[in-house]
């Protein structure tokens, strides 16, 4: 019994900007199902006294001093840009998502 | 484009609906380097000259957290009377937009560094307002997009954006209020007063230059209406990036009028972000508000948690400056300014300038006269802030010293001021270089008076007959002859002595 629907996969794919075909949606719904079920089994043994772990190494407060380092030159910064204009990265405008 | 929406007059809207506001303020911290890398943060540098591979989100880079930014965030939290988290993490806020080169913004989600605060501020007439703070969290700024081409999308081929990543990665603290209720028709004023309070606080803390016109402080204003104060909260809109106190006030006012018209027509208010238009004072629909889950937040694996020790928090608490409102009350008492005088000084952003001028030796009244008079006029005509003028408080004190010692009169002092503003040097240097000094040398004044009297023989007779009115005309003539440099009081004495002699 699948808990992840094809619609949910399609929505996630949309958010992640991944173009999936119909057959890929079906296949991934099944694969994600397996992952979710596996994670759910971990949830069965993790009781309330086990805090959720995001960082496996018990380390906190790693700070850098507020010191300036030499930045890239404009040419270096733009060297990987598919297109550049007036010292800036030129990108297609995303319509309807004006920030 | 849809037609302009209907508006209910503001007074009518707030009589029939109860407005609730909420404000999110972003402040750029004034650190030397960025939040997660050593790129410089200088304002106004050429585009893309302040980046590292981290700022550009190149593959394989790792962030390194700026400790100074964390310290500033904690101090802001403490100044807002917040609790400081014992442990908090960063989170990735995932979305695709060209100004975020990593395709996620490093932010905080369910574990802000500061939470549950309270500020108490005063409106200009002294009415107290309490604003509860929900949270203050750390995040990074995005780059800057400039859109080129047809704004209505008709010329699709020509539409593109240019991106400058100098701002990407500059540390931000975002401060979110709880819903502010019970302020009724004063909602617009409260919103502006709150943002101003924060601006002053950031400056007092020294965590940011907090210059509104540079976008150091940006506000998003949430507005909703409900029929009565005991009704559940209505649907809100969020007007983004409102960047001046006046705009904050206008945006709230406009949204109240607009939403009242929507509700009057029986329609629901659409939950959405809106854009504020400086020129018309109106807002327009932006994008539909995303669900939080659309951002797929998850803990940032590349940064370890921040766990400020209580000792560190206490130490930072000890560095908090006197809060701006208390400081103003103390300064007003010290200076002997009336309430309206002090309000004008505060509104002009002249408190620190006057304080520094007084410290440099001028009287409070003289300091106020210069900053609120001649200098305020200059700043206004140049369209800059007072503090951006090319003159220091110490120079104003020096200039006033020249007036107090009798070397300059008001008119000459204004000419000296113009010279200082023009970059000709200190007041002393300008006075010497331009030869501006009150002439009180009797020999020079007596001959100028004699010339003036000789030029207007009828005046002497009038004065002798007891009509002192024409004395002013003689003084005026002497001032003109000495290019305004005569000591007017001394000229008057000489005129009267001369008339009595003859």
Write a brief caption for the model.
The complex is a heterodimer of chains A (99) and B (502). Chain A is mainly α.
> Could you give the distance between the termini of chain A?
41 Å
Through-space gap between termini of chain B: 85 Å
Oligomeric status of the shown chains? heterodimer
Specify the structural class of chain B: alpha+beta
**Total of DSSP H or I helical runs spanning 4+ residues of chain B:** 17
CATH architecture descriptor of the domain at 6-45 in chain A: Orthogonal Bundle
List keywords for this structure.
heterodimer, A: 99 residues, mainly alpha, Histone, subunit A, 3 helices, 2 strands, 7% strand, B: 502 residues, alpha+beta, Arc Repressor Mutant, subunit A, three-stranded antiparallel β-sheet, 17 helices, elongated
Topology:
The complex is a heterodimer of chains A (99) and B (502).
Chain A: H1 6-15, H2 22-45, H3 74-78, E1 84-85, E2 88-92
Antiparallel strand pairs in A: 1-2
Chain B: H1 10-16, E1 18-28, H2 67-79, E2 83-84, E3 91-94, E4 104-107, E5 114-122, E6 128-140, E7 144-148, E8 160-164, E9 171-177, H3 187-205, E10 217-226, E11 237-242, H4 245-264, E12 272-277, E13 282-288, E14 298-299, H5 310-317, H6 324-335, H7 339-347, H8 351-359, H9 364-372, H10 374-382, H11 393-404, H12 410-421, H13 427-433, H14 442-455, H15 457-464, H16 471-481, H17 488-501
Parallel strand pairs in B: 11-12
Antiparallel strand pairs in B: 1-9, 1-10, 2-5, 3-4, 3-14, 5-6, 6-9, 7-8, 10-11, 12-13
Helix pairs in contact in B: 1-4, 3-4, 8-9, 8-11, 9-10, 11-12, 12-13, 14-16, 14-17, 16-17
């Amino acid at each position: 019994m699948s808990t992840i629907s094809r619609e949910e996969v399609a929505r996630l794919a949309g958010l992640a900007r991944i173009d999936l075909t119909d057959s890929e949606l079906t296949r991934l719904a099944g694969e994600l199902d397996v992952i979710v079920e596996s994670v759910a089994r971990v949830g069965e043994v993790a009781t309330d006294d086990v805090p959720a772990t995001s960082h496996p190494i018990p380390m906190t407060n790693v700070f850098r001093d507020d010191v300036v380092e030499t930045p890239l030159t404009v040419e270096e910064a733009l060297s990987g840009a598919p297109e550049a204009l007036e010292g800036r990265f030129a990108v297609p405008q995303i319509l309807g998502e004006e920030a | 484009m849809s037609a302009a929406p209907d508006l209910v007059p503001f007074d009518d809207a707030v009589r029939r609906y109860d407005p609730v506001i909420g404000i999110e303020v972003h402040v750029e911290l004034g650190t030397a380097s960025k939040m997660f890398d050593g790129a410089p943060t200088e304002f106004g540098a050429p585009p893309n000259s302040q980046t590292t591979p981290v700022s550009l989100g190149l593959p394989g880079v790792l962030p390194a957290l700026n400790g100074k930014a964390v310290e500033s965030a904690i101090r802001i939290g403490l100044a807002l009377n917040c609790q400081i988290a014992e442990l908090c993490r960063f989170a990735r806020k995932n979305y695709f937009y060209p100004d975020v080169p990593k395709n996620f913004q490093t932010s905080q989600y369910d574990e802000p560094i500061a939470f549950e605060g309270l500020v108490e501020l005063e409106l200009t007439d002294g009415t107290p307002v309490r604003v509860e703070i929900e949270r203050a969290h750390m995040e990074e700024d995005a780059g800057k997009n400039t859109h080129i081409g047809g704004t209505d999308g008709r010329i699709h081929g020509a539409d593109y954006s240019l991106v400058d990543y100098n701002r990407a990665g500059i540390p931000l603290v975002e401060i979110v209020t709880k819903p502010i209720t019970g302020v009724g028709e004063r909602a617009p004023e409260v919103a502006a007063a709150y943002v101003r309070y924060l601006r002053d606080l950031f400056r007092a803390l020294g965590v940011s230059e907090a210059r509104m016109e540079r976008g150091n402080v940006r506000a998003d204003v949430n507005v909703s209406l409900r029929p009565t104060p005991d009704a559940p909260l209505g649907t809100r809109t969020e007007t983004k990036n409102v960047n001046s106190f006046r705009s904050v006030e206008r945006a709230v006012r406009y949204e109240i009028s607009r939403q009242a018209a929507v509700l009057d027509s029986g329609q629901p208010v659409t939950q959405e972000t809106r854009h504020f238009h400086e020129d018309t004072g109106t807002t327009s629909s932006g994008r539909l508000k995303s669900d939080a889950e659309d951002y797929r937040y998850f803990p940032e694996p590349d940064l370890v948690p921040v766990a400020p020790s209580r000792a560190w928090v206490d130490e930072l608490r000890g560095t908090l400056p006197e809060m701006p409102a208390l400081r103003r009350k103390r300064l007003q008492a010290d200076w002997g300014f009336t309430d309206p005088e002090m309000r004008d000084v505060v509104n002009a952003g002249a408190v620190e300038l006057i304080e520094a001028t007084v410290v440099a030796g001028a009287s409070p009244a003289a300091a106020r006269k210069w900053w609120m008079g001649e200098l305020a006029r200059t700043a206004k005509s140049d369209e800059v802030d007072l503090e951006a003028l090319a003159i220091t408080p110490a120079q104003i004190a020096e200039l006033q010293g020249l007036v107090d010692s009798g070397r300059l009169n008001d008119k000459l002092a204004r000419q000296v001021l113009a010279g200082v503003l023009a970059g000709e040097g200190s007041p002393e240097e300008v006075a010497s270089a331009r030869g501006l000094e009150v002439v009180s040398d009797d020999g020079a004044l007596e001959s100028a008076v004699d010339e003036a009297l000789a030029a207007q023989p009828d005046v002497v007779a009038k004065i002798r007959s007891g009509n002192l009115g024409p004395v002013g005309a003689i003084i005026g003539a002497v001032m003109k002859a000495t290019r305004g440099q005569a000591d007017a009081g001394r000229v008057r004495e000489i005129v009267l002595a001369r008339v009595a002699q003859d």
